[in-house]
């Protein structure tokens, strides 16, 4: 399922909407780091708290700092629970990494805000424009917006560890 349209080192793990690949990406980043590869960026973890509310966290791969990017909106709310201020704070991690680039930048959040060209998308595309290899995830329902924003660059990857290793080896 490779769809490489340029030599840009941008890997995109394409997955069904209800099957996020957070653990796959986090595990791959950890395996690279164990092998001595300088990997930076943010990995997302989504869970539910004791009240059943959605909890979204971004973890800085370099420092381990956790940014809680969701907020409690109260019972019955159907609004997006994303905390824009927390996401802005977390995006500083990506800007730091862009200035002292790692061998691989992980950005495991391309969702609603990014599909609008906001959120972490500007930092991710800035890294790509500077030649930094980037690996991200993309829910299939956001692919049309991704295609528009990314201009057809990058490699679509199946959500399989073996595919990530092949892609990574090809970036060297």
The strand order across the widest sheet is 4-3-2-5-6-1-7
Beta strand count: 7
Compute the average pLDDT. 85
What's the order of the H and E elements? Answer: EHEEEHEHHEHEH
Broad structural category: alpha/beta
CATH superfamily of the domain at 10-44 and 87-170: P-loop containing nucleotide triphosphate hydrolases
Indicate the CATH topology of the domain at 10-44 and 87-170.
Answer: Rossmann fold
Structure explained in plain terms:
A hairpin with a 5-residue loop joins strand 3 (54-60) and strand 4. Residues 1-6 have low confidence and may be disordered. It contains 6 helices and 7 strands. It has helices spanning 22-34, 84-99, 112-115, 121-129, 143-150, 161-170, and strands at residues 10-15, 39-48, 54-60, 66-68, 104-107, 134-139, 155-157. The chain is of the alpha/beta class. It has a domain at 10-44 and 87-170: 3-Layer(aba) Sandwich (Rossmann fold).
């Amino acid at each position: 399922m490779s769809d490489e349209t340029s030599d840009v080192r941008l890997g995109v793990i394409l997955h069904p909407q209800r099957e996020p690949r957070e653990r796959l990406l986090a595990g791959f980043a950890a395996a690279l780091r164990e092998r001595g590869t300088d990997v930076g960026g943010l990995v997302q973890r989504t869970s539910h708290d004791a009240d059943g509310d959605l909890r979204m966290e971004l973890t800085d791969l370099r420092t381990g700092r956790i940014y809680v990017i969701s907020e409690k909106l109260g019972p019955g709310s159907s609004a997006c629970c994303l905390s824009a201020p927390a996401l802005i704070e977390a995006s500083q991690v990506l800007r730091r990494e862009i200035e002292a680039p790692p061998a691989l930048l992980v950005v495991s959040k391309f969702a609603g805000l990014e599909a609008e060209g906001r959120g972490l998308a500007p930092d991710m595309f800035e890294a790509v424009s500077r030649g930094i290899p980037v690996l991200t995830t993309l829910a299939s329902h956001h692919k049309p917006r991704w295609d528009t924003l990314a201009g057809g660059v990058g490699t679509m990857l199946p959500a399989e560890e073996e595919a990530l290793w092949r892609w990574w080896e090809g970036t060297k």
